Amino acid sequence: MVEELRILDGHTLFDTDAHYVIPRYQRAYAWEDKEIGQLIDDINDIDIDSAENYYIGSLIVSKVQGKADTYEVVDGQQRLTTLFLLLQYLVSEGALEGELGQTLSFDCRPNSNYTLARIQTILDDKIDDESAIEQPIVNGIRAIRQKFEEKSGLNRDDFVSRLAHVVLYRIEVPEHTDLNRYFEIMNTRGEQLEQHDILKAQLMGYLNDRGQQEFFSKIWNACSDMTGYVQMHFSPADREKVFGNEWNVWPADEWADYQPCFGVTEESEQGATIAEIVSNKFKIDDVDGMLDNNRHVRFDSIIDFPYFLLHALRVFVELNEVSLEKPLGDLLDDKKLISDFKNVISQGKMNGKPMDKENFSQMFIIHLLQTRYLFDKFIIKREYSGEDNEGEWSLKELFTSGQGSKKRAYYSNTKLNYSNEWERTYAPRNKECLMIQSALRVSYTSPKVMHWITELLLWLFNNDDNQNPKLIDAAELIAAQATRRNFLDGGNYKLGVQTPHIVFNFLDYLLWKNDKNGKKKYEDFEFEFRNSVEHWYPQNPSENSFASWDDKDTFGNLCIISRRVNSKFSNLSPESKMKSYEKMVRKGSLKLRIMGEIIQHGSNEEWRNTLCQEHEDDMINILKDKCKI
């Protein structure tokens, strides 16, 4: 059972009938300044005007038999105790009214209970018996007070308002769960249940059949491992049932088609459901997860699983024309994962009817599997091989060789071809698709704004295999629209360091593509995380050794470089930059390379007077032509 507990809702979490006991096998309270400060900062970052819940963690409990509303805390006691201390502090400062209930205690730890009962006295610096107190708890309450007193912008009254949005998820383990085994699992993981763990439990709970629940769990676990390809995260038997003998067939659309996979294994009958909920990894035959040099990842995703879920949900809503009273947020916010799904399940309508939870669970897990299949095949990854620790951009699909037990997966460039097309015709498209996607990837470094992934996944669902070559056009259109909307349409090309990164990277892509079939001058070029916009003619000339320039912020004078290169360039003139760091320039972005070539045949003064404007006109015209302006 999963239940929402509000920290503050007319009363506090500790003014209820529920009583929480920290068992003896749990360690004593041990959070220090860092963990306490992070919890306070997380709560303080909540949008005070938002009506949305903010998930603060999970509390795993086991109901104590024979004692009404008494729960043994299996996991989450550090967070629960800190929340108790935090509320005690707010009461002492008058930000909260009344007294807190004594609904938290430690089993067989009299000093801890003595200390909890005297928190208000401790906050007044009046300790009766030093030998009887639990010092880590005292340190905790003092760390809370110090945090509020020292951090600017931390207002107690505003903080209490934010607490009204904070939710803790209480998960009650099944009655006969082996708590020692469960506690061992949680200690092995070394972390709290994440939102996606709890979401998995909720969605599984909508299915009434044990076999369906197990199959749901297998798909979820396979998709949650974002390394490698999803096929390789299934057992060999399930892999062939889902993906066919060659392991690369499109997963079936209907829930009934998966009936052969619904059998309950002996292992799953013996295990507790909670063990499935907390296990992120299924035992897998992972042939692409180990390299000869013992590196455990060959293919690595560009996003983590919570963000993948957010992309999949948005695609699901669009594909199934789900109507929502409140649209999903503009940002892909992993902290709102549960609330986004709750919005769709509770408020969403399909075909004018409220969402059926069981049907949603079945539909979504199939959709998740299909989305991951498309993601693996058509969205770029980082691939590592040999001694390469940096990796390279990769766009490959899975194939098989061999028969029976000797069958193995191998990977080849994803084919973006029309029917009956020669390989020499379609093969270059893979590189184009890889380049435009990597241009998007390095432009949008935060996973919260990587909407291009949602758009490409939606495009793939809406277009059959015969249209796959046009995936390049779809990706180019995303970049072109962003460039036009955020730069060209404004007509102001003097944005300086505020110029959007997508403008530079899309331009580099176009320069590379225009060159690809000609001189092949830029064959060595790859998109990297160049996150610093630099002035070619500097903002502040070094020691006033050459003239300053009012038009330094114009687009022609700008380039995108890595921060390491930026520290080298400093305030040198264009001529000095090229003389001192020519090798660095020739390995940089394509716009930077062109600027370096121009200055080799000119001077700083000519750059200011004519060359910069000519260069800018050339670059803007390339962008306008592609953006159809």
Search tags:
629 residues, alpha+beta, three-stranded antiparallel sheet, 24 helices
Low-confidence stretches: 266-273, 278-295
Strand content range = 5-15%
Helix content: 40-55%
Largest sheet: 6 strands, mixed
Can you give the mean pLDDT? Answer: 87
Order of strands in the sheet with most strands: 1-8-5-6-4-7
Give the class from helix and strand content and strand pairing. Answer: alpha+beta
Bulk shape: globular
Total helices: the number is 24
Spatial separation of the terminal alpha carbons: 57 Å
Provide the gyration radius in Å.
Answer: 29 Å
Number of strands: 17
How is this fold's topology laid out?
Elements: E1 2-6, E2 8-9, E3 11-12, E4 19-22, H1 33-44, E5 54-63, E6 70-75, H2 77-92, E7 104-106, H3 110-117, H4 119-123, H5 135-150, H6 156-163, E8 166-172, H7 179-189, H8 195-205, H9 210-224, H10 236-243, H11 266-270, H12 273-278, E9 299-300, H13 305-319, H14 337-347, E10 349-350, E11 353-354, H15 357-378, E12 381-383, E13 392-394, E14 396-401, E15 408-413, H16 423-443, H17 451-462, H18 471-488, H19 501-516, E16 532-535, E17 558-561, H20 563-569, H21 574-580, H22 582-586, H23 590-600, H24 604-626
Parallel strand pairs: 4-6, 4-7, 5-8
Antiparallel strand pairs: 1-8, 2-3, 5-6, 9-12, 10-11, 12-13, 14-15, 16-17
Question: What does this protein look like?
Answer:
The structure is a single chain. The protein is of the alpha+beta class and 629 residues long. The chain is 46% helix and 11% strand. The chain has 24 helices and 17 strands. The strands form six sheets. It has a six-stranded mixed sheet with strand order 1-8-5-6-4-7, sandwiched between helices. A three-stranded antiparallel sheet has the order 9-12-13. The protein has a two-stranded antiparallel ribbon with strand order 2-3. Helix 2 crosses helix 5 and helix 9 packs parallel to helix 15.
